[in-house]
Amino acid sequence: MDKLDLKKELKHLFNPPQKEPVIVDVPPMNYLMIDGRGQPDGPEAVAAIETLYPVAYTLKFTVKKEQGIDYGVMPLEGLWWSDDMTDFLEGRRDRWQWTYMIMHPEFITAAMVEKAIDEVRRKKNPAAIGKVKFESLAEGKAAQIMHIGPYSEEGPNILKLHAFIHDAGLSFDGQIQKHHEIYLSDPRRTAPDKWKTIIRQPVK
User: Fold this and answer.
1) By three-state DSSP, how is residue 162 classified?
2) Counted domains in the chain
3) CATH code (residue 119)
4) I need a labelling partner for 123 at 20 to 30 A (CA). Which of 1, 21, 54, 92 fits?
5) Strand partners for 80
6) pLDDT tens column, 20-72
């Protein structure tokens, strides 16, 4: 059986340094996505996460059974923004908008996703199953850094990332080039001071 390790193949995207940001070129990739608004740990966000994972694992096991390809489900990722970016910068989290998403191998098709969604709806029918979409995201050039610790302590690394971007003569608007986080740790199994989060900011 073929074993596919996407994090290893895309190591430059999933293992940035902790001390200083780096510039990477992010190719177009396909994601299961759910859009929402409000608190990152609010009921709408929880429902999205509890829907994405069953669909992702259904796809994984279907591919393993039918095609003989085994791959690890990729980590949860989040895009964050606000209509008024001061809401985002000043922590008015009830006004935040987000897209939670999980990246998938390029051989996963829309038809396969629809089949997986139907299976999850039939077996579990999670609250956000009707909101799942499958789309490509092309971020291109981006700056990123690894944050170790609770999400609430990301501020200094976000400021460091933004300063790095501006010093490089680059920019972003926060709505088209959205703040992007990749959650490498399972918060249910890892102490908060050891959580690993990639903070990525696409640039122009």
Assistant:
1) helix
2) 1
3) 3.20.80.10
4) 1
5) 98, 179
6) 999 999 999 999 999 999 888 899 999 999 999 999 999 999 999 999 999 99
